[in-house]
Write a structure and sequence with these properties.
The structure holds two protein chains of two kinds. Chain A is mainly α. Chain A has two helices and two strands. Chain A has a domain of about 40 residues: Histone, subunit A, CATH 1.10.20. In chain B, helix 10 crosses helix 13 and helix 10 crosses helix 14. Classes of the chains: A mainly alpha, B alpha/beta.
């Protein structure tokens, strides 16, 4: 079983872009440990030659015509996709500088 | 309110005993006065406008045009996981506290196009993660009749609202049991259709290969009526099965051929852990099927023991991926602290502080199981066991037509009873999870009460796309057991 310690919890939290307090790191490390211990029973199953099932339906990705459709706009003419944007500049999402 | 079903309401409208605005007004009043915390948003003006429009249709036609508008004037609550254009949608999370979607979920669109009145958005476990509706950022929902107990989750608000008379019917979603469990705990009907029969467009994603929308109602008949309107292929959902809606209403009048009906009883679902009253109620239901002439067939679903383990790998992995979109860029909250972060990673972290603890826990678990070095041992292996579980069901359905089982080992537990041990909470889902993993249809129909008058649900599971047969059997059961 994976060694679940606080270092691992911190590393995974960082990957998931989550910030944990020291108390949370301790609690989650303990809970993660318990859950992974429980999940480890999957090792007992015989999965030789078994294809993983990732989706219940056997579907091919449906294709549609490559046709441009005008974006829906609200009463004021603003693209609706920007309705809940935290910050907008012209027709774009305004974000803090990343460099 | 004496009219408890869609048909009764339409009869009352036709007989001029009740008008759509009167009915909607009554429900809005009840919703606002209730202490259950079932609603996050009540859309009073919009609902009354819809009710008014329904009234005008009835005035013009002289009656409810039931063929054309099968849900005309019917007040419905929508779990706050479905988007509605211009209506606040929170998924019970602080992350979406200020989110107003620019589009409406297909299933809501279809219900409203059929004349339904949307009363508002119902409380739930945050991002559908939970089994007790104690994980909402907007406070827990109370059980409809026993206020010290949970309604079940994650569609707890939906179940409470229906049972407590705060809406006539509700939409919920089910990823690991989130329709069936609260339906069982609250004493209403809840159905999860076969994966793909109902569109997921506008259903905020938790686990894309498991999530399904479904109705929560006071009767099997209403479940069928709503699914008739909701179901069928949606070109906007690439996981929508390329099938027409089907005949749910026709299924209501098809009495099961009892003599040829084989009811599977999975032995792994009855090995200890069931509380006495639950076992008694389920066994009594099985005896009822037998008394009608059906054959009870003992079956085995040998990989059942792995269900919770598989789910708490697969679902959390999908969740960690689906919830990566909450980054404060295009929607959701963007707190001042995030803007003051020293770098991009810091910006994301401070935005994502808005998640509640259960959501964080599952994201961390899922990120871990997908990460380099652990992917094969956890995610891949879980998916392989998932296939074994789906095969268990396929084999069983060669011998039986329907599987009958409990929904939960217990009835509704007390608020706070299981919140300190996540694993204890997860084990509640043991009977509901396998169905989602296999993509099968299943419903919960009330079958009894325990000594404290807490409801108990009977679970009926069908083969893929065999939903209508479940409706027939559940209808016969509900009507036949009415004493």
């Amino acid at each position: 079983m994976a060694q679940v310690d606080e270092a691992l919890t911190r590393k995974v939290a960082d990957l998931a872009r989550l910030e944990l307090t020291d108390v949370e790191v301790r609690t989650f490390t303990h809970q993660l440990g318990e859950i992974l211990k429980y999940v480890d029973q999957l090792k007992r199953a015989n999965v030789d030659g078994i294809e993983p099932l990732t989706h219940p339906l056997d579907l091919a990705t449906p294709m549609r015509e490559d046709r441009i459709e005008a974006p829906p706009r609200d009463a004021a003419g603003k693209p609706k996709i920007l309705t809940s944007a935290p910050d907008v500049l012209y027709d774009g999402y305004k974000v803090p500088p990343i460099l | 309110m004496n009219a408890n079903t869609i048909r009764q309401v339409h009869d009352a409208f036709d007989q001029k005993k009740l008008s759509p605005t009167e009915l909607t007004h009554e429900y809005l009043k009840a919703a606002k006065a209730s202490k259950h915390n079932a609603y996050i948003t009540i859309a009073e003006e919009r609902a009354l406008a819809q009710a008014k429009a329904a009234e005008q249709v009835i005035a013009r036609d002289g009656r409810v045009p039931r063929e054309r508008l099968p849900l005309l004037g019917i007040p419905i609550g929508i779990k706050d996981l479905f988007t509605i254009d211009g209506m606040r949608t929170t998924c019970a999370s602080k992350m979406l506290d200020n989110y107003f979607p620019p589009y409406t979920a297909t299933v809501v669109d279809r219900l409203e196009a059929a004349g339904a009145v949307t009363l508002g958005k119902l409380n739930m476990d945050e991002f559908a993660m939970g089994g007790s509706n104690e994980n909402s950022a907007y406070g827990p929902v109370k059980h409809p009749t026993h206020s010290d107990r949970v309604p079940g989750g994650s569609s707890g608000g939906s179940a409470t609202a229906v049972k407590a008379g705060l809406c006539l019917a509700a939409l919920g979603t089910d990823t690991g049991g989130s329709i069936r469990l609260p339906a069982s705990y609250c004493g209403i009907v809840g159905m999860k259709p076969t994966y793909g029969r109902v569109s997921r467009y506008g259903l905020v994603a938790f686990a894309s290969s498991l999530d399904q929308a479904g109705p929560m109602t006071n009767s099997v008949e209403d479940t069928a009526r709503i699914l008739q309107v909701m179901s069928g292929h949606d070109p906007r959902d690439s996981t929508s099965a390329p099938r027409p809606p089907g005949d749910w209403i026709g299924a209501l009048s098809k009495t099961p051929d009892w003599k040829s009906l084989r009811v599977g009883v999975p032995k792994e679902y009855f090995v200890g852990g069931l509380t006495g009253d639950v076992e008694k109620a389920v066994q009594s239901s099985l005896k009822w099927f037998e008394s009608k002439g059906a054959q009870l067939v003992p079956i085995s679903l040998p990989h059942t023991e792995y269900a919770v383990a598989v789910y708490y790998v697969v679902a959390v992995c999908e969740a960690s991926s689906n919830l990566a979109r909450y980054d404060g860029v295009r929607f959701g909250v963007r707190p001042k602290e995030a803007l003051e972060a020293p770098d991009l990673a810091g910006f994301y972290k401070r935005v994502r502080a808005a998640f509640g603890p259960e959501v964080k826990r599952r994201i961390i678990l899922g990120t871990f199981a997908l990460s380099s070095g652990y992917y094969d041992a956890y995610y891949k292996r879980a998916c392989q066991v998932r296939r074994l579980m789906a095969q268990d069901f396929a084999k069983a359905f060669e011998q039986v037509d329907v599987i009958a089982a409990p929904v939960s080992p217990t009835t509704a537990f007390k608020l706070g009873e299981k919140t300190s041990d996540p694993l204890q909470m997860y084990l509640n889902d043991i009977f509901t999870i396998p169905v989602n993993l296999a993509g099968l249809p299943a419903l919960s129909v009330p079958c009894g009460e325990d000594s404290q008058k807490l409801p108990i649900g009977l679970q009926l599971i069908g083969p893929a796309f065999g939903d209508e047969k479940l409706i027939s059997i559940a209808q016969a059961f509900e009507q036949g057991r009415r004493t």
